């Protein structure tokens, strides 16, 4: 990693030295805030901001489309080349340059260049996205991150950096020609890194689809391809082996509604890891220490219908504890079926069935168990269930190893990109040649 020839001390803990020719300036001195309202309405092109994708057209999104409004007059105008950031998500690096003219929620801050001879806004965008700056923003932020369990309900809270703290934030400023070369270098490097990540993500998706297809096949058709078949009575499952039972789901489970166990660990229902203690969940949530008496008891082997089950299936409980009273807890009447149900309830045909039993809209969507319970599910003989579970675990073990290796590579690429941005925009790496 090539260094600059001379450095000077900054007196700033998160970046103690910078190249000798660099200066220090507040964001306030570099940009002008654009406060134009979309009134009277000038555009209906709604924009969205995210860390990974940058500024995108809202019509290109495939989720939350019901947030589109009839009236955008209170929204802020964004011009092509403007810098847009989210005070709520600045610690995650949600700041990008817009390639579009459109409007965006009033919660965002929009900036234009005060003097093109002083600051390249793309350099400023990279600087504010560097991990070291993110950690400094974290220390300035107010509020809580993640989901908060409050009286048995999960409520989203975000950490917000005040407008004044943002504008007062100090930026290390190379000469403008040097900024331009840094931007050119990072644009090219990040394009290459993102191309590699996209390729790995396509491979990851293919492996996940292979795994899901394998599971869906054996939990609905068994292990013998030559066995006689019959109609399951449920369109999502199609035909099942003729010797299997097809039973209404409500006859296979009892609902657990026990409350009053405040000393049990608080659990969370995750699509990737099942029902586990919140202390083991990577995306840690903040728990408000009240309302535990009203949470439902969950035992090992139970199944939890969560607020997102229609997207990823019903979650298996690997631990005993307590969970939101808004969730439905199911206990198999014959516990021997539990391991088979664990795979059936995460299979694509079953998820399709769940999606026909959803009530509510957007954040209020939930599975209506009264409807779901009247649908049929396939039940093989217990010996065959055991064989199916054994086959799935052996078959998917090798796929999971490949998936883990790809995820690790994607993580390394992400880490490399973050480190590269941080090193370059703070002058720890000289890319002028």
Describe this structure in words.
With 433 residues, the protein is an alpha+beta fold. It folds into three domains: 23-173, Adenine-n6-DNA-methyltransferase TaqI, Chain A, domain 2, CATH 3.90.220.20; 175-222 and 383-433, Helix Hairpins; 224-379, Alpha-Beta Complex (Adenine-n6-DNA-methyltransferase TaqI, Chain A, domain 2), CATH 3.90.220. It has ten helices and 29 strands. The strands form twelve sheets. The protein has a four-stranded antiparallel sheet with strand order 4-11-8-9. A four-stranded antiparallel sheet has the order 18-26-23-24, with no helix packed on it. Helix 2 (121-129) crosses helix 10. The two termini are 12 Å apart. Residues 146-157 have low confidence and may be disordered.
Short account of what is shown:
The chain has 433 residues and is of the alpha+beta class. The chain has helices at residues 27-30, 121-129, 131-140, 163-168, 176-221, 309-312, 338-344, 348-354, 369-372, 382-425; strands at residues 7-9, 17-19, 23-26, 31-33, 47-50, 54-57, 76-78, 83-85, 95-97, 102-104, 109-113, 142-150, 153-160, 170-173, 229-231, 239-241, 245-248, 253-255, 267-270, 274-277, 286-287, 296-298, 303-305, 315-316, 321-323, 328-332, 358-359, 366-367, 376-379.
